[in-house]
Amino acid sequence: MPALSRREALAATALAGIVATLPAWAQDAGGAQWDLKDLYPRDAAWDDARKKALADVPSLAKYKGKLGDNADTLAAFMVAQSDLGRTIGRVYTYASLNADADLRVSANQEKQAQAIDLYTAYGEAVSWASPELLAIGKAKIDGFIASNATLKKRFDFSLADTLRRADHTLSPESENLLAGVGSSFSGPSDIREQLVASDIPWPTVTLSTGKQVRLDDQAYTLNRDAPNRADRKLVFDTFWAEYGKFQNSLGAAYLSHVKADVFEKKARKYPTSLAAALSSNNVPEAVYRTLVAETNAGLPQLHRYFELRRKMLGLPDMAYYDIYPPLVALDKRVTVAEMRGVTMDAVKPLGPEYAEIFAKATAGKWMDPLPRPGKKSGAYMNPGASYDVHPYLLLNLGENYSGLTTYAHEWGHAMHTMLANKYQVYEKSDYPIFTAEIASTCNEELLAAYMVAKAKTKQEKIFYLGQQLEAIRGTFYRQAMFAEFELAAHDKAEAGEGLSGEKFSAIYLDLLKRYHGPKVAVPDTYASEWAYIPHFYNSFYVYQYATCISAASYFARSILKGGAKERDNYLSVLKAGGSDYPYDILKRAGLDMASPAPYRAVVAQFKDTLDQVEALIG
Ligand SMILES: [Zn+2]
Question: Is 271 helix (H, G, I), strand (E, B) or coil?
Fold first, then answer.
């Protein structure tokens, strides 16, 4: 299923509140601008395809127990399940895009539910295959791959990846037992969600404008950058104190989640919970630990940024509630047509092949760019049917700089998909998040550099530089801080230390103070912020935002310095798609994510940007 990345899902949540106040230009009732006829000419054709796929699902069962017979049988099964999955991807894409174009049309929601049912049926119909492959064993399957051209060309990597898990796969009986308890593992996250959504009596505050705000999660994100400092303080003091009142329950929920991770790592014989989580994409633990160490080494630059912020905001001192207000404002309209032109110019350093595909892709009807009543919020690139058709992009662009960066970001994903599809067989085209956010973030970095270079006024230049500083603070430093929190919680649980909400708050407060430096006031009440982060229930995931912006900085900086070799290396990462493990793909492209190089690149980028702003404001 084409899952949204965390970041896109987050953006969707953050944007959920603005639908009611659409600007006039966005209310044009012209309907979605993408052309879904490229997928199916009409709904009836989609339904025929869906029914045929559903009827084909049971045919996969005939291979059960026979995968070890010979190479041809294994190849026949692999081709049959891959081809069916490919068709189902197309069926699902059509239904989900239609559903997202207008959430109020229940017929389209029902079609999407039918497509999900089809996916579920398919997933169940092939669930026996991995255990069977593991039982056959590596030696025999390697022999099959060597003797069969189809297996070698299309399936060698996915088969090797399945076999890699052999040491951490249990007996069928134990696997069954684990699968059975698996659903209760989501309990802690469900409990947290219920507390936050229903049970916590979010307090109402009155801002200096006279506006009354009921401070739940959404209202907090909308008001935390209030221009009036006393309002910001009121918002922070009230909101975190409320989370603090539920510290015991929220702590028990998170501790249960951490304990489930520890149970699973023990059951599957991994040395640590971190190793267990990172094994899904075969990422070495050193990547995570180097990220944390290097971020700490780069904290003096972050502290410098907060001091610059204090100066630019004209504050006598800095507090944690001063980190969100924008440094300078820029009221400059950018139309979607202009976004295309600017992005096209900004990504020119990536060379002619990239430029050509980008120009062609953005000229097609692949994208639905503007907000519209009923349309799903947020932004995503859907790669689900891209191999046979093309990617689709759902965006809700504001006609401003933030819209422009979203445009460059999502088209970065689409270009990654286009290049991977061009150079890889279908089965090796899909890439994991560990590399995905590099392609999108690198475009953002090239865009920022271009805007700074082209800025006509000092004010404009400072605006773009300030946006870049915020991007690095939020995506590199803050996500690394979250990563460090998760690591500390799991390390302590594995060492048998007693944990509780109070202890999590103490760990978090220590991190907040260390990351924000001695000159940013962080009252003890704010220690409860950890309880507000839902991503902690998806363990060891957010670190990838920090590693991706680091890799993107590394490549963007070297490409902008004219490094032809680095440009080819960067493009080789995109073209490699999912043909190998992401860590190995990057290493072959000259970037070892377990080394300090990428993290030092993003810190250097941050420092250069600070230097530029300081020089401009004098
Ligand atoms: Zn993204």
Answer: coil
